[in-house]
Specification:
The chain is an alpha+beta fold and 134 residues long. The chain is built from 4 helices and 5 strands, in the order βααββααββ. It has a 5-stranded antiparallel sheet, covered by helices on one side. The structure holds adenosine-5'-diphosphate and magnesium ion (MG).
C-alpha cells in the first residue's frame, strides 16, 4: 500500500485513470464521501494541466504518513514549458489556455498542502497532500 503508483499522462483517458486511481487510494487510506470527490477533482485538474500545457508527464500517488496522520500524496511532474510567473498562475481566473483559470488555485483549496515548483524550459512539479480528518 505504500508503494507509489505512477500514471503516465499522455492522453485524455489517462486523466480519467489518474482520477480514478486517486479516488481508490483515498478510499483505502480512509477518506469518505465528499473528500473522495474533492481529491479526484484536484488530481484531474493537475493532470489536465499536464496534458494541455506540457503534452506529457506523470502523476504519482502514494500514502502519506506523518506521526499519527495519514493521507494521500499526489505529485505531478512534467518537462514541459514551465510557468514564467507562478504567482500569477495561482490566481483565480488567470489562464493562458482560454479556460477558467481555476485549476491550480482550486486544487490548492481542495487539498491541505500544495506546492508548485516551475522553471521555464525545464518543467513543472506540483506536490499536494491531504490528511484524513480524525
Ligand atoms: N503543467 C503546466 N505547465 C505549464 N504551464 C502550466 C501548467 N499548469 C498550469 N500552467 C499555467 O498556469 C495557468 C493556470 O492554470 P489553471 O489554474 O489550471 O487554469 P487553466 O488551465 O484554466 O488555464 C495555465 O493557463 C497555464 O498558463
Ligand atoms: Mg487547468
Amino acid at each position: 500500500m505504500s508503494d507509489p503508483q505512477r500514471i503516465a499522462i499522455v492522453r485524455d483517458a489517462d486523466i480519467v485513470m489518474a482520477r480514478q486511481a486517486g479516488r481508490e487510494l483515498a478510499a483505502l487510506v480512509g477518506f469518505k464521501g465528499s473528500d473522495l470527490a474533492l481529491i479526484a477533482t484536484a488530481i484531474s485538474e493537475i493532470a489536465r494541466n499536464i496534458l494541455v500545457y506540457a503534452q506529457r508527464g506523470e502523476i504519482e500517488l502514494s500514502v502519506a504518513e506523518e506521526g499519527e496522520r495519514r493521507g494521500i500524496a499526489v505529485v505531478a511532474r512534467d518537462q514541459g514549458p514551465g510557468i514564467a510567473n507562478v504567482e500569477q498562475a495561482m490566481r483565480d481566473g488567470f489562464s493562458t489556455g482560454g479556460s477558467l483559470g481555476l485549476g491550480l488555485p482550486g486544487a490548492r483549496r481542495l487539498m491541505d498542502e500544495f506546492e508548485i515548483e516551475s522553471q521555464v524550459g525545464v518543467g513543472t512539479t506540483v506536490r499536494m497532500r491531504k490528511w484524513v480528518r480524525r
